[in-house]
Amino acid sequence: MKSSIAYATLFVWIGLLCQNCNDPAIIGFDLLKDDEINLRFVDTFTVEAQTLRDTGVLVFDSRARFLSKMPVGNFSDPIFGTTDARIYLQFFRSSFLGRPDFTGATLDSAMLYLVCDTTIASYGKANDLHDYNVFNLTQNISYGVRYRSGQFSISHDMNAIGQITGVNPDIKKTILVIEPSDTIVYPPHIAFRLTESYGKKVMAFDSLFYNSDSIFLSNVRGFMFNQSNINSRMITYDVNSTFSKLNINYTQGGSPKQYSFPISGPRVPYWEHNHSMLIKDALNSKTKGKEFLYLQSLGGLKVKLEFPNLKFPTAAIINKAELEFTVIELPQDDLSTYTPPTQLALYRRDTINGLDVMISDQGGLNDFALLGGRLTAKEVNGQMVKTYTINISNHLQRMLSKKESSEVFLSIAPPGTFSETVLFPITSNLSRVILGGPNHPVYPMKLKISFTTY
Q1: Tens digits of per-residue pLDDT, 47-89?
Q2: Which residues of 180-215 are buried (b: 16+ CB within 10 A; e: fewer)?
Q3: I want to staple 224 with a disulfide (CB 3.0 to 4.6 A). Which of 135, 362, 376, 445 is the partner?
Q4: Whose CA is closest to 419, among 349, 330, 341, 358?
Q5: Cα–Cα distance, 258 to 160 (Å, whole number)
Q6: What pTM was estimated for this model as a whole?
Q7: How crowded is residue 65: how many other Cβ atoms within 10 Å of its Cβ?
C-alpha cells in the first residue's frame, strides 16, 4: 500500500514539472536552421564590441610569481604593425660557490648565456636572422616595484657590452661547451662575449656586495637584452634555466678558473607595440568592432564585450550560454606564419581593486580550457573555418540578476595554467587573431543561449 502511494506521488510531481516547464529557447544572431525548427528564437538584445589596447598588463610583482620564459624580438606583422619585446634581467651571487676571490687573477672572458625555451616554437618566419644586443643597466630593477608593460623605463648605457649579428638560433640543437673544469652539454642557447672592461668591472666588485642578496641587488645592476634589426620572427628565452648565467673565466696562480652568476634575480619583460593604421582606426570604436575584432598577445590588444539590453522572461533559468567567434583571414594575411592562438580567455574587471579576475564559469580553477575557447575547425556555409566557442552560462545568469556588470573582456589566454596569486592574465605566448564582430556579413560572432522558464 505504501509503495502504491509513493508511485502515485512520483507521477504527480512529474506531471507538474512537465506542465510548468517550457522547451529551451536559443537567442542568437544566427538564422533559424532547418534542424532547429522546434526551438524558439528571441532577438531582444544586442552585443557591442570594440578593440582596446591591453595596456598596463602586470609583468612583474615580487609578491607573485614572475615570468621566466619571455620572448625577445623586433617583430613586423603585415596586419598588426611592429612589436619590440625585450628583457631587463639581473644576475645574482651564487648560493653554491660562495664569495669569489679574484685576488691576483686575470680575466680570460666574460660570457653571458641565455637559454632558448624549447617548449615554445619560434613564432613567424622560420629563417629570419636576428641581431641581438646586451646593454649594461644604469638603474636597478627594484623588487618593491610592480612593473606594468609599457608603463615603466629602466635606463641603460647606450653602448652595447655584447652583440651577436645574423644569428638564427636553433631551438633543437644542443651544444658542447668546453669549460675549465669540464665539458658541459648546453641546451639550445645564445652566448654573448661581453666586453673586457665589463668583465673586469665584475671582478672588481667590493667583497661586501656578497654579504647578502639584498646588498648584492642594491649595488649590482643587470642587463637589457633586445633585438636591433626588424624581422618577422620571435624566439622565447628561458632566463630561469640553470644554464642562463654570467660566467667569469679567469686565470689565477697559473690555473684556469670560473665563477658563475645565475640569472635568478628579478627579470622584467617590456613589450612595446607600434600598431598599423588599420589597428589604430579600429581602437575604441564600437562601429569598427561591428565587423572586425583584433586580439594580440604581449599586452597588445584585447576586446571589450558589452550586453546593454539582455532581457529574459521573468524567472528564466539559463541552461547554457556560449559565445562563438570565427577567425577571419584578410587578403594580405598569412595564418600559417602569423598563427592564431590555440586558446582564448574570458575575464571580468573587479570593480573594487581594478584587477582582472576569472568569471564564475571557471569555478575558481586555474585552467582557461574549462571555459572552452579552444581553436576548432568546422564547416560553415560549405567552407572550413576556424572558430572559438566559450561558455558564459553562469556569468550571464549573474548579469541578469545584477550581480555582475554588463561587460566582459576577451583576450588571448596565457600558456598553461595560472592561479589568482600569479600575474593574471599574462599573454606571454606569441599569437594574434582577427575575429568576426557582431555584424560581420559572413561570419558574425554569436551569443547562443538556452533557457527554461517555470
Answers
A1: 899 999 988 777 888 776 667 788 999 999 999 999 999 999 9
A2: eeeeeebbbbbebebbeebbebbbebeeeebeeeee
A3: 135
A4: 358
A5: 23
A6: 0.85
A7: 13
